[in-house]
Amino acid sequence: MDPVLILDGLEKAFGGLQVTSAMSFSVEQGQLSAIIGPNGAGKTTLFNQITGYLKPDRGRITFYGEEITGLTTEQIVARGMGRAFQITSIFPEETVLDNVRVACLSRLNQTRRPLKAVSNFKEATDKAYAILESLGLKNHSDRLAFELAHGDQKLLDIGMALGLEPKLLLLDEPTSGMSPEERQLTRDLIKKLWKEFNLTMMFIEHDMDTVFGIAQVVRVLHQGRLLAEGTPDEIHNNPEVISAYLGEDLQ
Amino acid sequence: MADTGRYKDLTFWVLLLLIFGLLPLVKTSSYQLMLANHILIWGMFALAFNMLFGVTGMLSFGQALYYGLGAYSVGMMVKYLGQSWFLPGIGLGLLLAALLSVLVGLLIIRVSGVFFTVLTLAFGQLAWQITFRWYHFTGGDDGIQGIIPPGILSDRTVYYYFTFAVVVMSIWFMRRLARSPLGLTLRCIRQNPERVHFLGRSVRLNQLGIYMISSILSALAGSLMAGVDYSIHTNMLYWTTSGEVILMSVLGGIGQSFGPFIGAAVIIIIEDVVGARTEYWSLIIGIIMMVMVILFPRGLVGEFRALRSRLRSLTVQKRG
Amino acid sequence: MDPSFIIAQLISGLTMATLLFLVASGLTLIFGVGNVFNFAHGSFYMLGAYLAYQTVSSWHTNFWVATFAAALGAGILGMMAEFLFLRRIYGRSEEGGFQILLTYSFILVIDDLVKLVWGTEYKSLLRPAGFSGSVHVGGLTIPTYNLAIIAIGLIVVVLAWLILSRTRPGRIARATAIDREMMNAMGVNVPFTMTLVFGIATALGGFAGALAAPLRSVTPGAGIEVIIDSLIVVVIGGMGNFWGAWLGALILGEVNAFAVALVPEWASVFSYLVMVLTLIFKPEGLFAARGVRKV
């Protein structure tokens, strides 16, 4: 089967600073992979380019055989890419249910309907409830999103991405700001969602327990370049990777 | 929105329906009826503005453009073609508003916040300048008088019920819109436009859509007003008109479903009471606006609701 | 067309451009540094005219002292407005909208206060002594006051540019524009900077208003047209760009001067026309430094 995502020679510079350099790799169908690297390695910027939020200076991005370089975020998302954010990006004044429901409505292309009440859209509502159930947030359905605890908000963020029924899901630091217990729960949840929704997933992480705990493939970024790519064991023992992370605890 | 909120909401609207619906049957003077008519129309105008600002987060200082467009469509049709063209004039106003709002929207919706706001003001003033100076065509500063609705609508009470019906339908539409997927999307745009992109939706197109809808309803308000006052004036296009509808929204409570309507009622009643000394009306509304923005940003309705829930939690605490 | 006519309009346009630039620069300053759009900026322009008038009429000072007093007065009032009112809404969610509403209400209040204090009749301010005549250069008659304005404008522009780029306070102001938080962390008294910058901006506006006063009569209600003109300047030149504002002012000033001379009835509509054309073809302005385009 063809790779889901192919990056070919991606380059991006911000005013003299090269943040992405000769970035090339491909992501296979169903792969659960991690992107790691020291701060400033260009991880989020890479996500921004893949999702069309930033336009790369050079290079190509191919998604399911179609070139998507230069398309807008809306167009790329419509083609099946979902994203969860490092700093939770939700709709604080809407209910937890509606946060996910709006994503489901979007997937069904029903967001422009002006007269029927949202609660009457059965398919979108059912799907939203199902996602909340998977995330363990169903009890909070009617609460306003800003009332949720930080960890739950992060889950909601993921839920919103899931509502789009993405084929590729990008998670930006899903466990950031969480306690060790919460991280374990999130780790299990990510793996569960990956299987349950048949996703190809790529996540950025700093927490090595998560990375080496669940990722099948690890890609290491350093100063905008792909330093190494391989299984967790290969990466764990890679001397270049170790020296790039000098001073950091790889465990 | 939790469903209990919806029903509280409904209570208010039903109350409104009853009060304004039964008003002419109670012994009201024609002056009071005109006042009520004004409240209905400005209420609708403020609610339409609120769809733009409170719901979607687009602060337009130029809705007077469409309000005036609606008024002048009716006024000019009647002036040049005769009284029977009153209703087609309303239709023309809606059409022109739709067209113009798309053109203007395409030009200015691509810029952010503050810039967008001042550009709406600029376009509003442009319309005013043109209308004001084109004396031969529009009558300029003299305005147009003698715009009497045709047939049975020339009776004030009948016309009152006509506007009542139109306003009620518009409000019904706006309520449906607020609860629809489109309404949800618009609220999301206000809260987190970036995330809306990542939901696969075009922020700009949605904003253009609501700008159109709000502007068409504003034009409708202007058209209706022409038949209440029997006259129109370039003041309807002036920035103070835009400012007044904003004030009504802010006073009542932006984003609170019936807030703007209450705001309209309060302002019109104050204006009536203060009446003779309206030489310094700007000062009065300026101060009201300052007080609301600094001290009561949730508006009368919003602050009242907040107060009530705080009192409720206090009584619960006392009991517990 | 008569060349002397053209040159006369060019000079008139240049005068207009200078005034526009002075006003617009105050507006851009406070927006760039404090991220506050002072909707009432035109009202401070108007206040400047009135304060200058009052200074002359109460203390019979010469014009230049009056102009200075106007700038000072406008600056102080601006600082008071920022300190007493604007500060209360910093940091609120949806701050931008509330700011616009608050500064809009300033317009309403200032407009009527001006009417209350000075009444609604037109007041006039005479040109300064020594500048009430004209020079005759090669067949042209150029009012000396216009030249004075252009000269003053140039001096202020150069001074402002020097202060912003060469002095420490100037650099702090520019840095605050980019990152308020960082400046706070570095020990800069951000609230004080905001108040001060607001005062300087309104002082500039008041100064422009005083300078412009002898050219037209002093009336209430000038506020809105001034703010729109400033906006048009910024649309053409690009928001946040110093030299863009200058170019925008120049274009608008000249268009206006020729329009007034050729089609006086519709002159003001021409300014809007330039704005609409710019929006259609180059919405980010001719020199946008910072993107005003939405995400």
The tally of strands of chain B reads 2
Helicity of chain A, as a percent range: 25-40%
Stated plainly, the CATH topology of the domain at 1-80 and 203-251 in chain A is called Rossmann fold
| Strands ordered across the widest β-sheet of chain A | 6-7-8-3-9-10
Averaged pLDDT of chain A: 90
- Overall mean pLDDT score of chain B? 90
How many structural domains of chain B?
1
Using the CA coordinates, give the radius of gyration of chain A.
18 Å
**How is the largest sheet of chain B built, in terms of strand order?**
1-2
Residue share in β-strands of chain A: 15-25%
User: What is the general shape of chain A?
Assistant: globular
Corresponding CATH architecture of chain B: Orthogonal Bundle
First-to-last CA distance of chain B: 28 Å
Major sheet description of chain B: 2 strands, antiparallel
Describe the structure.
The complex is a heterotrimer of chains A (251), B (320) and C (295). Chain A is an alpha/beta fold and 251 residues long. Chain A contains nine helices and ten strands. In chain A, the strands form two sheets. A six-stranded mixed sheet of chain A has the order 6-7-8-3-9-10, with helices on both faces. In chain A, strands 2-1-4-5 form a four-stranded antiparallel sheet, covered by helices on one side. With 320 residues, chain B is an all-alpha fold. Chain B has a single domain (3-319), classed as ABC transporter involved in vitamin B12 uptake, BtuC, CATH 1.10.3470. Chain B is built from 14 helices and two strands, in the order H-H-H-H-H-H-E-H-H-H-H-E-H-H-H-H. In chain B, helix 2 (30-55) packs parallel to helix 7 (156-179) and helix 11 packs across helix 12 (259-274). Chain C has a domain at 22-222. Chain C has helices at 3-34, 41-59, 63-84, 95-118, 144-166, 168-178, 180-185, 190-212, 223-237, 242-262, 267-281, and strands at 134-137, 140-143. Chain C has a two-stranded antiparallel sheet. In chain C, strand 1 and strand 2 form a beta hairpin. In chain C, helix 2 (41-59) crosses helix 9 (223-237). Chain C is globular, with a radius of gyration of 19 Å. The N and C termini of chain C lie far apart (48 Å). Chains in contact: A-B, B-C.
